[in-house]
Amino acid sequence: MLKLIKNLSEAYGPSGREEEVRSLIQEELKGKNLEVFTDALGNLVAVKEGRGKKIMVAAHMDEVGLMVTHVDEEGFLRFANIGGLQPASILGRCFLLPGGVKATAGVEKPEDLKDLSFKKMYLDIGARDKGEALGQVGIGSVAVFEAAFTPVGGRYSGKAMDDRIGCALLLAAMEEVRTDNEIYFVFTVQEEVGLRGARTSAYRLNPDIGLAVDVTRSGDTPEAPRMAVSLGKGPTVKVKDNSIIAHPRVKERMMAVAEGEGIPYQPEVLERGGTDAGAIHITREGIPSGVMSIPCRYIHTAAEMVDAGDVEYGRRFLTALLEDSWS
């Protein structure tokens, strides 16, 4: 599983350009005797047929990035953010654009550091002028963090843990799950820009139960905003975030499954942010939905960090949830 997480983490896949990530997952799905299809928006769906409950479990393939909006006469690139990035998290970082073009994020003047904003920043691809830059990138090209996946003690660090960890957990669970439930493993697109892929796929599949698998913020770093989630204490069961108040029956069932399996878990109240469940639960007439998350430090940076034990418990927890009768 470690190699899979590494490959997924390092793949290029900003919102709207998830092709490379989708191809990696398609390779993993070969020979698994599942119905596999890609829908019109780009969501990848693998179906395990059954006669029990219809469960949709979703993890998003996309990551945050920077879209080129303008190239000046000196060859520097101006940009708009794709997803929730902060100026301080990109300054001085290396980025990767299509075609293997590499860039560094800079700021116009040192005094701009006191009031840092995207409009005062640029990407430098080493071009000497506008013509040379446009020979390498185009308006609308998207840059993502360039960062190696690195085990750090008993933890994993790298870009796009949000939500390649979730994608890896779906792939691991489909190997192990033994159930009569009909399960739709959905690898969604454009979550970071509005939960878009989850909305369309949920409408098409119309499941009985919706589950999102994602990461969540932690409150265990110095002076972190108070939040009762820490790395190394197990996956979380969502109570609330900005996109959903988890369905009481789903939340309580998730907690009961974790307790029955002896899996440590953390109730999660996230004051900002959301997951694919936010779109799933308000599709059609409403779909009872919940979320299992892996605690993560430094979300939407080049060095997102998760705990290996939380990932392993997440694998066991997700498998048990998919095998549950949900009666």
Structure description:
- The protein has 327 residues and is α+β, with helices and mostly antiparallel strands.
- The chain has two domains: 2-63 and 159-323, Zn peptidases (Aminopeptidase, 3-Layer(aba) Sandwich); 65-145, Peptidase M42, domain 2 (Elongation Factor Tu (Ef-tu), domain 3), CATH 2.40.30.40.
- 27% of the residues lie in helices and 28% in strands.
- It contains nine helices and 17 strands.
- The chain has helices at residues 2-10, 19-29, 87-90, 130-134, 161-176, 196-205, 248-261, 277-280, 308-323, and strands spanning 35-38, 44-48, 54-60, 65-71, 77-82, 94-97, 101-107, 121-124, 142-145, 150-152, 155-158, 182-188, 209-217, 236-240, 266-269, 289-296, 304-307.
- An eight-stranded mixed sheet has the order 1-2-12-3-13-16-14-15, sandwiched between helices. The chain has a six-stranded antiparallel sheet with strand order 5-4-9-6-7-8. A three-stranded antiparallel sheet has the order 10-11-17.
- Helix 1 (2-10) packs antiparallel against helix 5 and helix 5 (161-176) packs across helix 9 (308-323).
- The two termini are 32 Å apart.
